[in-house]
Design goal:
single chain; 227 residues; alpha+beta; Aminopeptidase; 7-stranded mixed beta sheet; 3-stranded antiparallel beta sheet; 33% helix
Length: 227
């Protein structure tokens, strides 16, 4: 289901209400003057207890070859996600996400190779729901590393729903799946009724803790140990 409206009435408060009702915004390009409200028949989700970490990805995470931070360069992560030939992140949507970040409702995970920002993921939080918006990569596995750290953090913070909106082959390879709209709205309602924290007290993840305890299937079991 898609509805179109003008950008003029779109505010951070309206955007949060939209997420709470199960819809999200998209545009047709950087300069698109309209917004399309999307509520897919089948919704992409990434089960937090079913993140698929391949042996090679676990090895890369464990090596610590990349430095990972959170909420240090949110604006730059969104800008990198939008810097594509085809993007749904218009200039107006980008500014709104920056405003949500300033209000404490949007967060980013950043991946660094030395001083260079090489990957990242960002999303919106409400209750115990995380709405993953976009990710980017400028180095091998950088976006996957960002996602691994994001999933570990969300699990530790008590989140119960990771909404990926759509299911791409990339997300499917990491454990993502699709569920019917009705199931999504039920899970969303349950998640919104709970409390979670993107930056839980005492949380100090290490590469080893993020990469540890993988089953033979490659699905990650999360330990309560975070340091």
């Amino acid at each position: 289901m898609t509805e179109t409206t003008s950008f003029e009435d779109l505010t951070p408060a309206v955007l949060l209400r939209a997420y709470a009702t199960g819809i999200f915004p998209m545009s047709d390009g950087r300069d698109d003057p309209e917004i399309h409200w999307i509520d897919p028949r089948r919704r992409g989700v990434l089960p937090l207890d079913g993140f698929h970490m391949s042996r090679s990805l676990a090895k890369r995470v464990r090596s610590g070859c990349y430095r990972v931070t959170t909420d240090t360069v949110f604006d730059a992560v969104v800008e990198a996600c939008a810097a594509r030939d085809e993007t749904w992140i218009s200039h107006r949507i980008q500014r709104l996400y920056v405003q949500l970040h300033q209000l404490g409702f949007a967060h980013s995970v950043e991946v660094w190779d030395g001083p260079k920002l090489v990957g990242g993921v960002y999303g919106v939080t409400l209750g115990a729901a995380f709405f993953g918006e976009s990710m980017f990569s400028r180095a091998t596995d950088a976006s996957k590393v960002a996602l691994a750290f994001a999933v570990h953090r969300l699990w530790a913070g008590g989140f119960r729903l990771f909404d990926t909106q759509f299911l791409t082959p990339h997300l499917a390879s990491l454990g993502g799946t699709e569920i019917p709209r009705a199931d999504y709205h039920r899970q969303l309602a349950e998640a919104l009724g709970q409390t979670a924290h993107f930056d839980p007290v005492g949380y100090s993840p290490s590469p080893v803790s993020v990469a540890s305890v993988a089953r033979a299937s490659g699905r990650t079991q999360f330990s309560t140990q975070t340091s």
